[in-house]
Each structure stands twice: as C-alpha cells, then as structure tokens.
Amino acid sequence: MMATYSLANERLRALEDIEREIGAILQNAGTVILELSKEKTNERLLDRQAAAFTASVQHVEAELSAQIRYLTQVATGQPHEGSSYSSRKDCQMALKRVDYARLKLSDVARTCEQMLES
C-alpha cells in the first residue's frame, strides 16, 4: 500500500513539473511576442527563444504522452501497482487537464509561428 502512495506521489510530482514547464513555455511565448512587437527586433534573441520554445513544447508533449500511456493502462485495468476509484477519478481529471494543456500549447505554438512568419 505504501508503494502505491509513493508511485501516486511520483506521478503527481511529474505532472506538477510539466505544469511548471508549461508556465515557462507561456512566458517564453510572451517574450517572443513582446520582441516581435518592437520596431527593431533582436533576431538572435528571437531565434534562441523560438528554439527554446520548440524544445520545451516537444519535451512537454513527450512527458504528457508518457503520462497518458500510464493513465490509459490504469483506466483499462492493465497490470499496474495498485488502483482504486479515487485514483481512477484523479487520472480522468488529469487526462482532461492534459488535453486542455495540449490544446492551449497548440494555440500558443500556432500564434508564435504566425508571428515569426510575418
């Protein structure tokens, strides 16, 4: 039973790390948008920020996919370390938050790409 709580806490910490990284991505996007609004933009800064943004989005997407795979295993009753109704409900809510975060990240990426193209 203790191992189950440890695993659950580890999963929650991973989701919190992902959430923090999403916050950093949004800050990065804000920096790019602010720089693009200037008359004379710093191309090197934009290149660095765009590369950091892309790398972070790819990392978040990979981490979210790993979380979704795990939650799918739990939700479909495949072998895993412990389960309960509460855990399943938490997983469902986490999946909804993950889907929402993916949607928002996609919107931010699309906006940044459009701004970089113009």
Can you put this structure into words, describing what you see?
One of its GO terms (cellular component) is core mediator complex. One of its GO terms (molecular function) is transcription coregulator activity. This is Mediator of RNA polymerase II transcription subunit 11. It comes from Rhinolophus ferrumequinum (Greater horseshoe bat). Pfam families: Med11 (PF10280). The chain is an all-alpha fold and 118 residues long. The chain folds into two domains: 1-79, Helix Hairpins, CATH 1.10.287; 80-117. Helices cover 86% and strands 0% of the residues. The protein contains three helices and no strands. It has helices spanning 2-36, 43-75, 85-117. The longest helix is centred in the first third of the chain and has 35 residues, at 2-36. 14% of the residues are buried. The model has no long low-confidence stretch (mean pLDDT 83).
Percent range of helical residues: over 70%
Strand content: under 5%
Series of secondary-structure elements, N-terminal to C-terminal: HHH
CATH topology of the largest domain: Helix Hairpins
> What is the average of the pLDDT values?
83
Low-confidence segments = none
Taking all Cα atoms into account, the compactness measure Rg is: 18 Å
